[in-house]
Structure formats: C-alpha cells, structure tokens
C-alpha cells in the first residue's frame, strides 16, 4: 500500500504551551510574525497568552483581527492587502478553525501574487505553495486545522464553501494548549466537539484510510467519545478539556491523511447557503449519514463504537453498529443539537439552491471517500431525512 503522509514539522502540546511561542519561533528561525486572529480573541484577552511572551522576548508583531466565522474570500483578500507592505517572516494563526483557515488562505494567496483568487486553488487544484512558515494555535477543540493540509473558504460570488487542499495549507508547526479552550461557550464546545468526532469517524471508515491515519483516528475516537459529554456539562473540567483538545488534533491528523467523507461533503453546502456553523451542520447529518453507510463498513463502524465507549468490547459487530446509531442520536439530544427547522431552514429550502445541494456535495470530492458512494437522489433523500 502506498501512503502519502502529511503532518506539521513540530507540535508543542500541553497546558500552558502557548507561553512557549517565542521558543517555537526561535526554533523555526523566524522573528517577525503577523498574528491572524478574530475580534473575540482580542476582546477576551486570550491573545495576550501569546502577546505577553512575544513582548517579553522582544519579538515585534502585527495583528490582523478582521476575520469572520466561516471565512469568506473577500476577507482573505483584505488580509493579503493588510500584509502586503509589512516586514514579516512568518504567520501565527490564533483562534478557532475560522481564523486558522483565514491565515492559511492569506498565506496561499500571498504566495500566488497579484490577480490570483481563492477559487483558483479549490479542489481538484492543488494549493502547494505558501508565502511564509505558518504556526497554528487552536483555541477550539474541533477542526484540527492546526494539523491539516486544508482550508475551507466561501466564495461570496457563488456561496460555495470551497475546499482548498495542499502543502501550502499545512502549518509548519502547531502549539496545542487546552487552556486556551477553557472559555469556549457550551454551544461552540458541543459543535466543535462533534466536528472533531466526525473527523475521526469519517477518517476511520474512509476508503482512503491507511494504517497511519487509522492510528490517529482510533486514538481520537477514544478521547473524544469518552469526553465530549463531560466537557459540555462541565466546562471547567481541565482533564476533559485536555482530552478533547488532543483528540481534535489527532482527528485532524487522521482526516488530513485519510480525507473526510459524506458527512463533510453534505455539510459544506448547508454552511454556505444557510450559515449553519460547521460543527452543527455535521452534527445534524451524522446520525442519518451513518445509518446510510453502516453496512458498507460495519466492522469499522463497530470498532468506532467500542473505541468511543458506545458499545462494550464484547459486542459483536452487528450489535455494536446498532449501538453506534443509537448513541449518535442520544449524543445530539444530550448536546441540544437543533434540527434544521429549529434553525430556521424549511424543508423546501433544500430544493431551492442552484446548483443543487447534492451537486455541490458531490463536487467537493468528499462523498467519493465514503464506504458507500451515493448518487444525487440518495443525497437529497438524506437531506430530507434530517428533519
Ligand atoms: P470558529 O473559529 O468559527 O469559532 C466559533 C466561535 O467561537 C467564534 O465566535 C470564536 O470567536 C469563538 N471562540 C473560539 N475560541 C474561543 C475561546 N477559546 N473562547 C471563547 N470563544 C471562542 O469555529 P471552529 O468550529 O473552530 O471553526 C470553523 C471553521 O473551520 C469553519 O469555517 C470550517 O469550515 C473550518 N474547518 C476547517 C478544517 C480544516 O482542516 N482546515 C476542518 C474543519 C473545519
């Protein structure tokens, strides 16, 4: 089996690791960072967890904080203009998946030079070149973007949530410090946690899984499956926050190497057209997509159920698979995941988009990694089922 492995060159993981940012820059041989973050990081003062040690080390830095949740191409272009005349030699991406993806996209577009647009890089084109070394520091335990070779940017002209993949989107280094996630509100804790769980599950059942991605996915399923409810109910539980943060990064490493599948393929059009946060649209889809796919990869789904603590080790595959379906429904209930209608999306809205939701889901390429590959009709049936 041929394996093509992607991972950051260095990762510093642990409570308080953000305070070692200056040492990380020193190790990488860079000293003039642009920090890309969001306004919440600035207003909460979380950004000071890296600004203070940078100041202490005498490292000058500039901040771009005009990023938005679920990033769009116009903000990326604004970021490239902001950075154009700065004397910088690296980018620090600080925040949830949105600012991290924004930083990656700025870095890719900056390397491409004048006249380039984000959509020039969407899959199946490769985004292999970045202007500067990028160090990612996540503040949510969710996307795993700190460890992936992806960035997801919405085209404001077409409302398409574009998947952009390549070495240019892979951070050179990451600092994974669960203490940065202690302040994440309950709703975002749930949404990002389900996102991470979905990454791990989809990586394990993906047609592109390999022994290395399997190792990451298994470790992630164990950590996330056993800590997601706890972290939602007990936001101050440091052990659970630490487990979720590590689990999310491991899940990122898993799907960066095995790819995601149908849940993510169907989730992106929901985000683009109806502005549902990424983790939430995954959560809405996860039980129905798993039900649709279960028998095509039953041993793998059953293994996931056991790893996540949803089924005892003694269960045969059939029973463990059934328990997985039940556990995913219960998880959504316990984490108060709304249905699309509760989110203000009418059933008929699914049919109105142009191109259709199913066409867009298939265009991303992710459904082709699913254990069973659906056609447009089957995809529309699953969308209808999640009400
Ligand atoms: P996010 O970055 O949009 O953050 C959600 C909200 O939580 C924001 O308001 C943010 O300010 C707030 N927040 C973040 N950290 C906080 C903290 N520590 N305390 C308090 N508030 C905090 O959400 P996300 O789910 O992390 O990222 C979603 C984006 O990531 C989407 O655009 C999605 O498509 C993308 N994504 C990328 C990859 C990848 O591999 N690149 C993978 C999955 C998802």
UniProtKB/TrEMBL annotation:
Cofactor(s) needed by this chain: Fe cation
Domain spans labelled Alcohol dehydrogenase iron-type/glycerol dehydrogenase GldA: 9-177
InterPro entries: ADH_Fe/GldA, ADH_Fe_C, ADH_Fe_CS, Alcohol_dehydrogenase_Fe
GO MF annotation, one: alcohol dehydrogenase (NAD+) activity
Keywords, comma-separated and alphabetical: NAD, Oxidoreductase
Name used for this protein in its record: Alcohol dehydrogenase 2
Gene3D superfamilies linked: 3.40.50.1970, Dehydroquinate synthase-like - alpha domain
Domain of life, source organism: Bacteria
Family designation: Belongs to the iron-containing alcohol dehydrogenase family.
Key word NAD present: yes
Species the sequence originates in: Acidiphilium acidophilum
Residue ranges of every copy of the Fe-containing alcohol dehydrogenase-like C-terminal domain listed in the record: 189-387
Catalytic activity: a primary alcohol + NAD(+) = an aldehyde + NADH + H(+); a secondary alcohol + NAD(+) = a ketone + NADH + H(+)
């Amino acid at each position: 089996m041929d394996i093509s492995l992607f991972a950051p060159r260095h990762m510093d993981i642990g409570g308080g690791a953000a305070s070692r940012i200056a040492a990380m820059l020193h190790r990488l041989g860079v000293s003039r960072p642009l920090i890309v973050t969001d306004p919440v990081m600035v207003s909460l003062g979380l950004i000071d967890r890296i600004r203070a040690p940078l100041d202490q080390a005498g490292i000058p830095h500039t901040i771009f904080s005009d990023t938005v949740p679920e990033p769009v191409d116009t903000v990326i272009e604004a970021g490239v203009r902001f950075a154009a005349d700065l004397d910088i030699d690296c980018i620090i991406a600080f925040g949830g998946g949105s600012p991290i993806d924004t930083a990656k996209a700025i870095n890719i577009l900056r390397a491409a030079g004048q006249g380039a647009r984000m959509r020039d890089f969407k899959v199946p084109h490769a985004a292999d070149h970045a202007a500067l070394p990028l160090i990612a520091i996540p503040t949510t335990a969710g996307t795993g973007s700190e460890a992936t070779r992806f960035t997801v940017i919405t085209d404001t002209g077409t409302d398409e949530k574009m998947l952009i993949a390549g070495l240019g989107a892979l951070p050179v280094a990451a600092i994974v410090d669960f203490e940065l996630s202690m302040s994440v509100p309950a709703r975002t804790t749930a949404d990002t946690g389900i996102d991470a769980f979905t990454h791990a599950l989809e990586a394990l059942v993906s047609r592109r899984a390999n022994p290395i991605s399997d190792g990451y996915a298994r470790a992630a399923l164990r950590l996330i499956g056993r800590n997601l409810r706890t972290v939602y109910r007990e936001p101050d539980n440091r052990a659970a926050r630490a487990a979720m943060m590590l689990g999310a990064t491991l899940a990122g490493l898993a799907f960066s190497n095995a790819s995601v599948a149908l849940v993510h393929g169907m989730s992106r059009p929901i985000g683009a057209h109806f502005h549902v946060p990424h983790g939430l649209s995954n959560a809405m889809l996860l039980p129905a997509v798993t039900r649709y796919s279960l028998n095509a990869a039953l041993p793998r789904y059953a293994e996931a159920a056991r790893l996540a603590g949803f089924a005892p080790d003694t269960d045969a595959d059939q029973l463990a698979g059934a328990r997985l379906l039940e556990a995913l429904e219960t998880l959504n209930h316990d984490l108060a995941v709304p249905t699309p209608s509760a989110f203000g999306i009418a059933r008929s809205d699914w049919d109105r988009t142009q191109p259709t939701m199913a066409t867009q889901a298939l265009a991303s390429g992710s459904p082709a990694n699913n254990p069973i590959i659906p056609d447009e009709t089957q995809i529309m049936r699953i969308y209808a089922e999640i009400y």
